[in-house]
Amino acid sequence: MDRPKNLREALRDDLSEDELEELGSSFDIVGDIAILKLPDSLLDKKQRIGEALMQVHGNLNTVLRQVGPVKGELRTRDLEVIAGESKTETTHKEYGCLFKVDLARVYFSPRLSRERFRVAQKVRAGEVVTNLFAGVGCYSILIAKHSDPEKVYSIDKNSVAVEYMRHNVRVNKTGGTVVPVEGDARAVVEEHLHGEADRVLMPLPDFARDFFDVAVETLGPEGGIVHFYDYGEEPDLFEPSLKFIREAVPGKGIELRDKEVVRSYAPRLYHVVLDLEIKSR
Ligand SMILES: C[S@@+](CC[C@H](N)C(=O)[O-])C[C@H]1O[C@@H](n2cnc3c(N)ncnc32)[C@H](O)[C@@H]1O
Asked: Which GO molecular-function terms appear in the entry (predicted)?
């Protein structure tokens, strides 16, 4: 039998037109696993929907349903297997790097791929970079592979994420450049990484404002660049973040080098990034 072109075609005998409409077409693929959200009205058809997704995408081995939102400090989510092999671990390829992840125990989103590469391209040879919320090491490893930094200190509080980060650093041959550190970003910076970095990454929009003072403390005396992630609401996506930043470090020279929408998050709400040059620590 020919492979169906898309989910709609694969499910046309199983779901009504209204149900197909409700299902939509949005899902993520991470390695050989697909993750999708389902409305309650389609839960009794979840297994068939999962199998259909596997028919459409021949290299999938597992389909997971996201049961709840990404939540808590560690940004993890509850998942259930609805088709294929019972597993949540996979390896994802991105810009020539391999990232092994357990989707139920660590944060990972393929939707940040373009943003990770954008930041990697900004890094100049010899820079010391500190990633305050490094997860399984995606930004850090991309930076080490595509630019030529001296060090990329890579902190995460989730011990499971740090285990995967260590594995990913080895597999991508970035040991010696990417330095995984397990712990709370504030405590690690205060104890070990104070005043060293040319560039700081803060890829945790939910808590970035709480850690902005830590990012500034992480920079060397000459200052440097902070990639500050936040949420922005229409119609003014960036100005509230900028206002917060100016008030958080009064008297410091701050220049907005770049600003981008990373992705849409909810109606009128966006995940945004501001690239800031802080002129002195
Ligand atoms: C949104 S994820 C970013 C993951 C990664 N940068 C990526 O692109 O895949 C945020 C990460 O911050 C970590 N985290 C949360 N609070 C933290 C803290 N206080 N100190 C260090 N890491 C923290 C979480 O465990 C999670 O892995």
From this structure: tRNA (guanine(37)-N1)-methyltransferase activity
